[in-house]
Amino acid sequence: MALKCGIVGLPNVGKSTLFNALTSAKALAANYPFATKEPNVGIITVPDSRLDQLAALVNPQKVLPTTVEIVDIAGLIKGASQGEGLGNQFLANIREVNAIVHVVRCFEDDNVVHVDGSVDPVRDKEIIDTELMLKDLETVTKQLDKAKKAAKSGDKEAIRIVEFVNTIKNHIEGGNPVRSLDVEEDEQALLNDMMLLTAKPVIYACNVDEGAVIDGNSYTEAFKEAIKDENAEMILICAGIESEIAELDSKEDRQEFLESMGLSEPGVNRLILACYSILNLITYFTAGEKEVRAWTITKGTKAPGAAGVIHTDFEKGFIRAEVIAFQDFIQFKSEAAVKEAGKMSVEGKEYVVKDGDVMHFRFNV
Q1: Whether the Cβ atoms of residue 8 and residue 73 lie closer than 8 Å to each other
Q2: What is the β-pairing status of strands 99-105 and 202-207?
Q3: Is the pTM for the entire model greater than 0.90?
């Protein structure tokens, strides 16, 4: 499945610097609003040490990680929902992503102008939330008018839709993003169809200076408090450090640099894994002489659905899956040794795939 995350934020909060670090593509990181007029798109690999461990044992011709598409969406400003700045275009770009990475500025720097004159991440977040909510309100109001017309005939389904859309409208009018609304399972499909901007899962990337990258600062503390009732993740990241890491050529140099900063891994790794977590995604592997490969699926996917990610024929003609738990593969060091130890299981259509499963599908088309 193609996973797409969009980076949003006010101008000059460090979005393009972070995007560059994520993709090592050189988007224009200039110190003025709208340096990023076209959404820059980068494909980045999902860091997973398990892939390297499997490859070391199998020694395949190719190793293929799973990927995430990152879209650097130009800076939103107050009035974007009315088309201010490059508003409409940006909002359309946000509609197309699975998750939003919202970068907020939590550092002081006299050399980097703030679009509103002072550093206040909570205010900045509210400016963007307001623009996205105004756009959603517009969408929901249109939906409501449509549903009310259909409900006039007494159609029960249409009446149910009117009630549901009304609930969403009231929630937004109360100043709340749609993702903070508890939705019944049977209403989720209706909500998805509306493609509302504030229904998308959010990871807040608090862009801090070097000194605050481990424990945060007063800005990040205030921000954490402001989002405590929201269904969102928050991570600390220093875009400056991340760009320096991205400039280093060797893995050893990067590791040495991280250790000198007191960090165990780059912030961009944590960011990608946070995207996975908030979208409820897991990884399974296929491992053979030709390739060792990681595949992304949603948590709870059954074996035929997981097979379908490789090819639709695998799902249509699914017979069974041979499954090895990752730890067993590592412990016994080969598929043959795992079989000999009786640790390979043969699973049918109802098997729910677990994170890290090493799988081989039998199918007939």
Answers
A1: yes
A2: parallel
A3: no
